[in-house]
């Protein structure tokens, strides 16, 4: 997932939802999905669009957002249909926004704190969703079962201007699994988005856990074999 390098065509459904408000493409992914922001100077709503063969992924995300919003700061679903999902914006910026990309230690700490808050807030016993498919059928014994984000890459944590966690987006893979399914991917994504060294330790320290090399290696291997569709 990355920011677009230039203007992109605005689908008719997005233009209709915008109702003459400013529209801009804000994220693209490797599978042809584009997320558009509505409003300026910062979006107040978003519309995620996917090619028709992947429309089912948005239906799965709708179910998860509607369940999670009762427990944690996640986007509110405004409307959805085949191939599109319209949500209200949350306060904050993506952890990879230039404001935080220039302060990767701050971003890493907020990601770790945010994941701990998410894991503590979402009730495992009430969660109707099984583990993210990429986790596989034979994970190692769980360190702690939580409701995982499922795609805990850095861009999916939102951070407030005071550097505190503001929420999470792209929850189409949310489900019950070992917390290391999130932590392994969150720490791995720091290298992709920020480079450098030491940020993994910052994230884990903010989360409040010591490194678990075996579980980290397992879940990273599973991710690389069966990576979920990017948000």
Give a structural overview.
- The protein has seven helices and ten strands.
- The chain has 231 residues and is α+β, with helices and mostly antiparallel strands.
- It folds into two domains: 12-88, Phosphorylase Kinase, domain 1; 93-225, Aminoglycoside phosphotransferase (APH), C-terminal lobe (Aminoglycoside 3'-phosphotransferase, Chain: A, domain 2).
- It has a five-stranded antiparallel sheet, sandwiched between helices. A three-stranded antiparallel sheet has the order 6-8-9, with helices on one face.
- 42% of the residues are buried.
Overall pLDDT metric = 94
What's the alpha carbon Rg, rounded to whole Å? 17 Å
| Share of residues in helices | 25-40%
- The CATH superfamily of the largest domain is Aminoglycoside phosphotransferase (APH), C-terminal lobe
CATH-assigned fold name of the largest domain: Aminoglycoside 3'-phosphotransferase, Chain: A, domain 2
Give the strand order, joined by hyphens, for the main sheet: 1-2-3-5-4
In this structure, how is the largest beta sheet organized? Answer: 5 strands, antiparallel
Cα distance, first to last residue? Answer: 7 Å
CATH architecture of the largest domain: Alpha-Beta Complex
Q: Which series of helices and strands comes N to C?
A: HEEEHEEEHHEEEEHHH
Q: Strand fraction band?
A: 15-25%
Structure summary, number of beta strands: 10
